[in-house]
């Protein structure tokens, strides 16, 4: 899990500064998830949950982006990669800790588009911290 911290943090910094998420960040998260699924055979995240974590949020965000806009392609790819790496339940927890601060930030700054990777990073940090202490 902690191997994902570097690419997620880099994505957050890049999204905050330039409003772009480098492709290598979500690819690294996806590869780390794939390696952990195949080599370490992590029993707490079944392969089906990883696949659902990849597909459901990715397709949902893609549909939202097409219909309403405001969600960038990098956000979709990073969220889908995190869904595969942490599974659907892990991604749900990350989004729980990410989306409320993102909504508050959007309302406070009166922006329609927020650097979502920043808040995904916050959600990841809270999720990782809670996972270490449980």
From TrEMBL:
It holds the Pfam family Peptidase_A24. The keyword Transmembrane helix applies. InterPro entries: Prepilin_IV_endopep_pep. Keywords: Membrane, Transmembrane, Transmembrane helix. GO terms for cellular component: membrane. The chain crosses the membrane at residues 24-44, 51-69, 81-106, 113-133. GO terms for molecular function: aspartic-type endopeptidase activity. Gene3D superfamilies: 1.20.120.1220. This is Prepilin type IV endopeptidase peptidase domain-containing protein. The lineage of its organism: Bacteria, Bacillati, Bacillota, Clostridia, Eubacteriales.
């Amino acid at each position: 899990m902690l191997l994902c911290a570097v690419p997620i943090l880099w994505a957050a910094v890049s999204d905050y500064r330039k409003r772009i998420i480098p492709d290598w960040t979500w690819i690294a998260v996806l590869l780390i998830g794939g390696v952990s699924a195949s080599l370490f055979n992590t029993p707490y995240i079944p392969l089906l949950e990883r696949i659902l974590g990849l597909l459901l949020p990715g397709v949902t965000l893609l549909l939202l982006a097409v219909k309403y806009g405001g969600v960038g392609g990098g956000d979709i790819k990073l969220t889908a990669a995190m869904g595969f790496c942490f599974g659907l339940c892990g991604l749900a927890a990350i989004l729980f800790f990410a989306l409320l601060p993102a909504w508050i930030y959007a309302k406070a700054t009166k922006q329609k588009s927020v650097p979502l990777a920043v808040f995904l990073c916050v959600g990841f940090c809270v999720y990782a911290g809670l996972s270490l202490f449980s």
